[in-house]
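A common beginner's mistake is to predict each chain separately and then try to dock the pieces by hand. The better habit, illustrated here, is to supply every component at once so that their relative placement is modeled jointly.
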Amino acid sequence: GQNIDQPTEMTATEGAIVQINCTYQTSGFNGLFWYQQHAGEAPTFLSYNVLDGLEEKGRFSSFLSRSKGYSYLLLKELQMKDSASYLCAVTGANNLFFGTGTRLTVIP
Amino acid sequence: GAGVSQSPRYKVTKRGQDVALRCDPISGHVSLYWYRQALGQGPEFLTYFNYEAQQDKSGLPNDRFSAERPEGSISTLTIQRTEQRDSAMYRCASSTGLAGPGAKNIQYFGAGTRLSVL
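With all components supplied together, the output reads:
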């Protein structure tokens, strides 16, 4: 089976750095995705990790440790528009399994 | 088209009626996926296609749910004899590459169809 754990909600201040953690259990791991979803909108792709280590893309970075079943998404220089849900998803044998998401609120 | 297109955007139906939800993927995308998303939850996998072939339907809740993609492009998710518990946002996604083990396939999601069963 598959299971993903993420914090339900987080709050951070504009300009700060926030780390959203994700732990997972899955059989047949084939990669981990992070998606961003603004309220009432479709999820949009942020990052993909399949090997251990850090992937950096602008203000967003994602880290993976396969041995620990652990990933995090790091958001730097937070902006108000970063307020959204952040979904961790793992690829199993054939499909993408999503966690419930972390709702991030950025405050001034 | 520019993105994944789903229709209708909203569907209100009475319990017991059948509904058909349509998905038009990004042009050229070979894989298409259906998800159901409850409020405050992540998308829940239902089924997916590579071209016209349905590869995995393990996520379909029961035999009232079916999907097809007869020409490898547009797909239809059909729910027969709808029940109130079927009310949810139904999302479609597509990707360029073939879905399967070891595949890095970025999925592009549509805006979804909000289904309400009264």
